[in-house]
Amino acid sequence: MFLVGLTGGIASGKSTVSAALRELGCAVIDADVVARQVVQPDSPAYRLIVQHFGPEILLESGEIDREKLGSIIFSIPEKRRLLNSLTHPEIHKAMLKQILTFFLRGYRYVILDVPLLFETRRLTRFLKHTVVVYCDPATQLSRLMQRDGLTQEQAEMRVGAQMPLNEKRGLASHVIENSGGREDTHRQVLRLHTQLEDSLDFLLVRALAVTLATGLGGLVLFTLKQLVS
Ligand code: ADP
Questions:
Q1: 2-228 — its CATH code?
Q2: Ligand 1 pocket residue status of 143, Cβ below 6 Å
């Protein structure tokens, strides 16, 4: 098995590409969904967050007030680091569990849909390929304004707060150019899918797993023989 990172900038088309890959039958793990799951009430990360940030960051329902927490960590970098240190281990554990499940189900590769892939850089060393969904700045701005009902100024602020898409494009091993129409993007997704399906990179990990399993099996047999003799 091998891992593929998928990322982009706000409204560059990452969700569109991710949905197309899912439709083609790919195993996709959405880091945003995992991040929301691990802070559900009574999970270990939830308890740690309440312990460190106090019950005032909770909604009446008992769930974490993501907006309130977001504004705290936005203005105090130290608090952002604290929150990351509480949630990241849980997010990574949950993602690893899902990756293992896909591996056991026979998937050759798993796509990790991670918005901040190049900003945090924690996962990049585990990835065989990185894919950036790119579109030109004017298209990105107009799609963002339309999708989220923002003024140009609001949209520019959101785009400006992110790592420039151009920079991400330079870091990726594969770029999907999404400035044109949907059909053009879909053709590129199909090409990427074929490349991933044809790749033999999965063989190494599978061979290692078989070797390990055979070695472990041999060890168990040997121990059993020793015990009964
Ligand atoms: P992201 O997940 O990167 O934030 P989305 O996939 O949600 O971006 O795309 C942003 C908006 O642009 C959405 O409303 C989507 O439907 C639209 N969109 C994406 N790709 C195209 C395209 N090639 N042509 C026209 N609209 C598109």
A1: 3.40.50.300
A2: yes
